[in-house]
Predict the 3D structure of the following.
Amino acid sequence: MLNDLEEMYEYSDENMTMLERGHRIPVPLCIDTIRLGYPVIDFSEGDHKDFPVLDNDPVRTLTGLLLEINRIINVECDNGHNYAPHDKSDYCIEVIQIEDNIANVFIGS
């Protein structure tokens, strides 16, 4: 779920490493933009919105990426940009596609 920080840390530890010379090492990221649609976008204004990461400091780890997605959705919902019939605690990150330093994020409920 969106605000399950313990699960985010656990997932990151298990899923964002690669095997190099017999050792697990973090997969490097460099994400400067989070692209979101549902639930924080009014579809009459478009199908997504690009959000720069906090302080324009690129996200370099999966944990950082999950926390940044969490932060943006919480801020948007708290500012009245929740366009779905659910509370933000019902949302979960379903898919993250990364291309050209943009994380395209799909949220489910």
Summary: Residues 5-108 form one domain. The CA atoms of residues 2 and 70 lie 6 Å apart. The mean pLDDT is 88. The longest helix spans residues 62-78.
